[in-house]
């Protein structure tokens, strides 16, 4: 049968019919039997509370029978509720809801530029980012990321984005001397191979921004909503951003995002300067509020820290056991990566044979990003499957 999908992915031969907790289920095309996969990819850090979480299911089932969408022409108490909750648990004063991470970053960029425009500094448009970053796939956000493989073939790079080497202080200072609106970074570069910014570097960066009226944007699309063992990764850095983008885990699988900002940073925004048709629709708000109900419940984050600590230690043991396949681990919380010596895609292929999912990243890293509800038993199963996969690679099977 002909495949009419746009040729932008190279998907596996297997596909999934249903999911439950940390598992997804596929039908074997030859036997028709159901096969169970351990999901340590979580839809690229999206399935924050697991597949089919009963509270999320109940909230979405209730909402789908009431109202799906009205548009932002009308007051939305659902949006106001989720915005209030996100601001109460973060640095922010205001929120704008989107459909995706890229749109959240687009909003962050516009908020930053508009801040300077409103102050009469129209020339201050440059967004400084760091090499290895990934901020989305739109024309603006591929320019923000600056990676050649994403820019190639799409015409001139959008103006107003400057990349500097990762944690290169002198290059950063030089890049911010003229027309700088904001500095934008991922606290842990997800697609870039789970490189983490040093807290002392970010503290200096925050002061640089304060001294020069530059806004600081944190892209927490992958790190936010508990992924690192804290609600937001910035909490471990000793600073707060002015603007933060969210998506992925916020909807627990429903496509949504948010851009959070202080009132000062958002001071240039006013009716008509930005908008979205679907962003903030009733289904998305039901999903976001249900996810927050779960992750803010007593003991939830403590369990994430506990289980992620076990995962980290056992991955270190795996590296020691297979020194020709792995060389170390990277990341934090339940955003961990195995730095590979073998090709990460070969490791992933061997893992698929063991009925386990993970996600590749740059720098030859394989990400372990399970749902935040993963248990120690599921960590043990993951290590068992990784061990078998590595052993087979070592033997040349």
Structure description:
- This protein is an alpha/beta fold and 397 residues long.
- It has two domains: 121 residues, Aspartate Aminotransferase, domain 1; 242 residues, Aspartate Aminotransferase, domain 2.
- It is built from twelve helices and 17 strands.
- The protein has a seven-stranded mixed beta sheet, with helices on both faces.
- The longest helix is centred in the last third of the chain and has 22 residues.
- It is globular and about 65 Å long.
- The mean pLDDT is 96.
Instruction: Give the CATH topology of the largest domain.
Output: Aspartate Aminotransferase, domain 2
Order of neighbouring strands in the sheet with most strands: 4-12-11-10-7-5-6
Q: Quickly count the domains.
A: 2
Q: CATH homologous superfamily of the largest domain - what is it?
A: Type I PLP-dependent aspartate aminotransferase-like (Major domain)
Task: Give the helix/strand class.
Answer: alpha/beta
Cα distance, first to last residue? Answer: 32 Å
Overall mean confidence score, pLDDT? 96
Helix content: 25-40%
Q: Note poorly predicted spans.
A: none
* Rg for CA atoms: 21 Å
Beta content? 15-25%
The CATH architecture of the largest domain can be named as: 3-Layer(aba) Sandwich
């Amino acid at each position: 049968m002909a495949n009419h999908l746009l040729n932008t992915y190279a998907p596996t031969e297997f596909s999934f019919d249903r999911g439950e907790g940390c598992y997804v289920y596929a039908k074997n095309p030859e036997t028709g039997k159901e096969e169970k996969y351990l999901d340590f990819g979580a839809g690229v850090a999206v399935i924050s509370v697991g597949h089919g979480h009963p509270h999320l299911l109940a909230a979405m089932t209730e909402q789908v029978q009431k109202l799906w969408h009205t548009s932002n022409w009308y007051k939305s108490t659902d949006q106001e509720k989720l915005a209030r909750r996100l601001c109460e648990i973060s640095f922010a004063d205001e929120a704008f809801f989107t459909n995706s991470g890229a749109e959240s970053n687009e909003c962050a960029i516009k908020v930053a530029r508009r801040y300077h425009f409103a102050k009469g500094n129209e020339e201050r448009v440059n967004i400084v980012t760091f090499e290895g970053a990934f901020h989305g796939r739109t024309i603006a956000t591929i320019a923000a990321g600056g990676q050649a493989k994403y820019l190639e073939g799409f015409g001139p790079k959008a103006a107003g984005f400057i990349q500097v080497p990762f944690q290169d202080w002198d290059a950063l200072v030089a890049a911010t001397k003229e027309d700088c609106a904001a500095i934008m970074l991922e606290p842990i570069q997800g697609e870039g191979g789970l490189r983490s910014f040093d807290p002392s570097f970010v503290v200096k960066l925050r002061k640089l921004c304060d001294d020069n009226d530059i806004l600081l944007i944190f892209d927490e699309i992958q790190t936010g909503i508990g992924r690192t063992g804290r609600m937001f990764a910035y909490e471990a850095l000793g600073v707060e951003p002015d603007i933060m983008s969210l998506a992925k885990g916020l909807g627990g699988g429903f496509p949504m995002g948010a851009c959070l900002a202080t009132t000062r940073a958002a001071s240039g925004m006013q009716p008509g300067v930005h908008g979205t048709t679907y962003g903030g629709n009733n289904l998305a708000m039901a999903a976001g509020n249900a996810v927050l109900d779960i992750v803010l419940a007593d003991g939830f984050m403590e369990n994430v820290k506990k289980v992620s600590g076990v995962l980290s230690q056992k991955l270190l043991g795996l590296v020691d056991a297979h020194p020709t396949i792995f060389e170390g681990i990277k990341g934090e919380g339940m955003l961990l990566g195995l730095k590979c010596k073998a090709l990460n895609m070969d490791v992933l292929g061997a893992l698929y044979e063991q009925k386990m999912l993970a996600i590749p990243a740059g720098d030859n890293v394989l990400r372990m990003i399970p749902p935040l509800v993963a248990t120690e038993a599921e960590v043990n199963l993951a290590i068992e499957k990784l061990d078998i996969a590595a052993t087979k690679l070592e033997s040349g099977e």
